[in-house]
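Handout, section 4.2: multi-component inputs.
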Amino acid sequence: MGLGDEKGLVLISAIVEHKPGVLHRISNMFRRRDFNIESISVGVTEFKDLARMTITVKGDERVADQVVKQMGKLIDVIYVEVLDWSNSVQRELALIKLKAETHEKRSEIMDYASVFRGRIIDVARDSLIVEITGDSEKIDAFINLTKPFGVIEVARTGITALSRGASSIGGVKGKT
Amino acid sequence: MRLLSKISGGKALLEALKREGVSIIFGIPGGAILPIYDELYDFDVRHVLCQHEQSAAHMADGFARASGKPGVCFATSGPGATNLVTGIANAYMDSSPLIAVTGQVPKPMIGKDAFQEVDIIGITTPITKYNFQPRSASEIPEIVKKAFFIALTGRKGPVLIDVPKDVQTEECEPEFPEKVTIRGYTPYKKPCEKQINIAVEWLASAEKPMILAGGGAAYPEASSYLLKISELLLAPVATSLMGKGAFPEDHPLSLGLLGMHGTLAANKLVSEADVLLSIGTRFSDRTTGKVDEFCKETKVIHIDIDEAEISKNKKVDLAIIADASEALKAIYDGLVNRLSKRGETPWLKRIKEFKSIWEGWIFEEESSKELKPIPILKILRKTLPIDSILVTEVGQNQMWSALYFKVFKPKTFITSGGLGTMGFGLPASIGAKAAKPDVPVVDVAGDGSFMMTENALSVSVAENFPIIAIIINNRVLGMVAQWQRLFYEKRYSAVKLDRVDFVKLAEAYGVHGVRVQDLNEFSNALKECLKLDVTSVIDVPISPEENVLPMVPPGSSLEKILGVEKWDWVMKKG
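Output:
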């Protein structure tokens, strides 16, 4: 099983110190080493002083190897690994604001949203906001499908992911 | 340990530095660091007042490289801090343990573009191992302890501590920790037994083993095992620029420098070797030439304490992540159990063949007394005691020194390897002299480099660090001129530099200055300077047409060496 998916993206998961300046150090390293961040998502973990970062990077196995080593070298990074696309689950959340000036359009969009297991979270006189969660392809597909209505704006969180099974990296308190 | 009375953050900082064994600080005061300097006024640590922060950082760096202890420099906020940047980047590239302390505007003014405010944490993030900004005085002792721990362990490097002015003045009851741990930082790495066994197997069965020593091998303990392994295997040793000193260069198995200005022996033999043991080197482009062509057929073993160096530049066949001395000891123990002392091998014959050509190159009898780089460095080596420290500037002077000045011990050759910082040599030699006052310290300079930080002469005199600066004066930016001569059709763009009378300049600083006209005068002047033991400048005019040869053009494979045509017969063999 290769590390990159068909788009040449590598999926990195890291446990880092949850304190000011850490994101700067990590993103600075990516820029300095000429790695290309495609998406990044950050949030606290089950430990309040640790955050998890999920990063997708354009590149091949050599890039994946260097990204992990260079991240591991950063003092605020506690643990980092490459996640296998098929042996992990990935999700992304998107908010999509669509034009919907008529009743017909609104109900059509609501139908699509329900097929995608999305939710309508805001309704205005001539627009709707749909919330969709899923892998990136699903979100891309929804956006493509609803383009004819007129996409006003989109906010996506970027991919967040966990490895399958009972294993965890969150419990690791020292670099291995 | 807890102090009984309350002290200021500034005092806590000095106290913490003293507890780390700091005996000397190089710096310049200014507005945002005044509270620390106020505490320094009656604190018993020596402070050396510099003329420019870049020099302060280079002095601290030179001190660190000569002593093995971290060098400490102080600067104020804003321009003081930005002036340190070149020095910090230089220390980072060469893995030198430097502690930089900067003043910062008071916390409430941070982010407001206050007078002399600069985001030095942001600026130095990519050029430090780590940087800190204490937000209260009581954090300072632990931060200092962590800073030294980080700077000195694993792959060494610079750490910056940026102290807001209000934190310097804040009163605290500091606790000084004896030990710190950082959960994301585990620098002690034991060599893995399985990999050591494979390395031993490969090396023991190699017919043409070779060793490449980088800066990570240029420490006394690693260097002693390197010597033992080399002698046991009859493996020749080449070094990168930073590795110079890791292996005694008068040894029959020493090949000298590898790379763009590598010796014939090193550059040619590295492609003939069947197994290459490389230690503490990042396979820099200046060392490997075109990296895809480097050791294509050779099995490469790479020992490094920094895992991120493994296969960063050169894809290697076996990686050992460990401290060089521990890994080399384990390899030596493995080898010594398997091998007995070897006699003459065909590989050794080949090495001798190349070495004799190279020795002939260096020791070509000079019939004239004309001032030329090779005899100048020959005389220097003959005259200086072996413990002396040679520091270089950057450019032709540096490459001539690397090629023609033989070094026998680690820590006696100090140069700006990775960053290639012109102006490094003079201040670094002052720092080295501060670390080793009893040995002669010589800065081999070019006129271009020397003028970049020449005002450090005043520090040398005022603080009594008597160094000898030998200016190999070709009145051009020599290395740039050489590239223009070789690769830009002699279009000498912006390199002519006949601007300063260095003897008069020396006198203005109260320095002993002398100009020499031939090799005899040079030799005599050098001896006199050593005897005088005062800061000296020797102006050694040479032709602006001199090249550093041999040379591998940038981006070429190491086998495409310029300047060796007359040895074609041996180059084609093998």
